């Protein structure tokens, strides 16, 4: 698997531009050409989108979490871990690196949120995650950066044989936002589900990029992403599934479907399958369009105003992704969170 671009806010030479193929739709160098002022320490009250679900809360404020030494999950995790990244520094930059280790046979539900009450910040988060043999990680993400802020999250996830990863990401974007996931898939009974949905207004930008590298036989991947853009917003989907030599028996499916609900909205989609093995079942699909005019007409004929009809159809379109969230409490939180941003 090609090494991802590692961004260091202290090193402007690490800021990718559109000349870097994987970043051509999300040109960081256009908006950030020098190291931003360092964010000061900050504090926030406990809470966040998933607060009502309980569990342990770990909060990074402006890239800092006192005493944090990583997350280690052993045994069956009955309560979730709520991981919050909160930006409260105006016009400043911060970064953090987080390690998460799900031990063999263990399970972890990680409820992750990116919150931007401040303005004009730059947030750069890196996560290194390992999921041991037979272990299970459920990762549910909601992200909403400030309209004039830059938010980057890059996760590198390594799975062992028989491991399971269920990831669902939901975003409302930012000035420039990228949620990137790189997965080393060993095959050998491991299963990956990568789902995402984006709902973007105004001039917001969200980039959902993923690479799943199947390195051994008999692995499965299922990926579904849906999005809606309004006004002059821009949605980016880049999904790549690689099947290496010897990864026979791989079953990998990818779908991206999006709606443009304005004349100046933009969606850039780049689904890729790179297959070096035989005896595999792989497929990808991509559609970008507008709402079904016949359905809109049908609903209006039955007395539903146009705006309400459009909202109902948009809601139904995105809820397919929400319904795939297995954690019941998180699913309902995400449903309300996403509905409020339509």
Query: Which ranges are low-confidence, i.e. pLDDT below 50, for 5 or more consecutive residues?
Result: none
Q: Can you write the helix and strand succession as a string?
A: HEEEEEEEEEEEEEEEEEHHH
Computed Rg: 20 Å
Helix vs. strand class: mainly beta
> What count of structural domains?
1
Helical residue percent?
10-25%
End-to-end Cα distance: 36 Å
Roughly what fraction of the amino acids lie in strands? 35-45%
Shape: globular
What's the overall average pLDDT, rounded? 95
Q: What's the number of extended β-strand segments?
A: 17
Tally of alpha and pi helices: 4
Biggest sheet architecture: 9 strands, parallel
Strand order of the largest sheet: 1-3-5-7-9-11-13-15-17
């Amino acid at each position: 698997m090609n090494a991802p671009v590692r961004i260091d806010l202290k090193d402007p030479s690490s800021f990718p531009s559109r000349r870097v193929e994987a970043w051509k739709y999300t040109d960081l160098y256009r908006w950030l050409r020098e190291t931003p002022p360092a964010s000061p320490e900050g504090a926030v009250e406990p809470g966040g989108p998933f607060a009502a679900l309980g569990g342990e809360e770990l909060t990074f404020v402006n890239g800092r979490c006192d005493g944090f030494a990583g997350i280690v999950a052993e045994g069956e995790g009955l309560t979730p871990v709520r991981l919050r990244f909160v930006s409260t520094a105006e016009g400043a930059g911060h970064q953090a690196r987080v390690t998460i280790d799900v031990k063999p046979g263990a399970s972890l539900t990680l409820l992750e949120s990116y919150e931007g009450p401040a303005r004009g910040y730059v947030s750069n988060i890196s996560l290194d995650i390992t999921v041991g043999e037979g272990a299970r990680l459920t990762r549910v993400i909601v992200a909403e950066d400030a309209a004039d802020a830059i938010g980057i999250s890059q996760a590198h996830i390594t799975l062992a044989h028989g491991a399971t990863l269920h990831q669902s990401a939901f975003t409302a974007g930012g000035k420039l936002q990228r949620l990137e996931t790189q997965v080393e898939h060993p095959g050998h009974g491991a299963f990956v589900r990568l789902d995402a949905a984006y709902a973007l207004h105004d001039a917001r930008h969200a980039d959902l990029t993923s690479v799943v590298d199947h390195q051994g036989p008999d692995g499965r991947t299922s990926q579904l992403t849906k999005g809606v853009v309004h006004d002059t917003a821009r949605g980016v989907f880049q999904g790549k599934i690689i099947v290496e030599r010897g990864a026979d028996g791989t079953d990998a499916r990818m779908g991206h479907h999006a709606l443009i609900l304005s004349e100046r909205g933009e969606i850039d989609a780049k689904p890729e399958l790179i297959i070096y093995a035989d005896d595999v079942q792989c497929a990808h699909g991509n559609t970008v369009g507008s709402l079904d005019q016949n359905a809109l007409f049908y609903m209006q004929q039955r007395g539903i105003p146009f705006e309400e009809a459009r909202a109902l159809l948009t809601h139904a379109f995105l809820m397919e992704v929400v319904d795939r969230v297995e954690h019941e409490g998180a699913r309902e939180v995400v449903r309300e969170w996403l509905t409020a941003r339509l």
